[in-house]
Amino acid sequence: MPHELLWVVVVVVAIAVLLLIALTSVMRRRNKPFRTQMFPANYVEPYERRIDEVERMFVNQPREAVAAAKLLVDDMLTRMGYPVRISNDERVRDLRHYSRSHADRYRVATGLKANPTTEDLRRALQAYLDTARDLCGDARKSHHVPAEETRRPEIAG
Questions:
Q1: Are residues 56 and 104 in the same domain?
Q2: pLDDT by residue (tens digit) across 77-100?
Q3: What are all long-range contacts of 30-37, with beta carbons under 8 Å and residues at least 24 apart?
Q4: Which of the two ends of the chain, N or C, has the fewest CB atoms closer than 10 A to its terminal CB?
């Protein structure tokens, strides 16, 4: 009799696990990732100018340049419809929906240690700026707008 009871328990546990897996799968499908769109075409040139400014800033102010590059990328992502995030890990997870390389770069850029070397800062800056340049290039392709036809709004930062 105890042997039969053990089988009943095993079967009930197996059914419970299968139900839990099915429920989790249904919940994931309901919570679809957010929708993104390219930022407006008239932001491409101002963003590109800001990328160049931040790159030049690195010579005299490397830490500030890295911070400015992060703000720039985060602004671009917000304009694209990404949710505002507090955690870098959440932002990396969100970026995976758009591009694995962007997510990998963002992880590298935000992985600075407490006392980074100039080389660490350079790598972080490069990761942010490469992402920003890719986003600008994607926006140009998406909008099919030649560079001279874009308007120039003010960009904070």
A1: yes
A2: 999 988 888 889 999 988 887 789
A3: 33/94, 33/97, 34/81, 34/82, 34/83, 34/94, 34/97, 35/81, 36/80, 36/81, 36/82, 36/97, 36/98, 37/80, 37/81
A4: N
